[in-house]
Amino acid sequence: MLWLLDTPLPMSPLYKVALIFVNAASIHAIYTPPHPIADNDETQKYNYRALKDFQFQFRRRAAACAKTIHWLYSASESALILARAFASPLSTDVLTTFMVYPENAAVLQITPAWLIGGLLMASGAFIRTACQRELGRFFTWELSLKKGQHLVTTGPYALGRHPAYTGTLLAAVGTFLCQLSPRTWMAENGCFESTAVRWGLWLSYTALVPYMFTRRTYAEDDVLREEFPEEWRAWAEKTPYKMIPYVF
Question: Under a CB-based contact definition with an 8 Å cutoff, are residues 78 and 158 in contact?
Answer without folding.
Answer: no
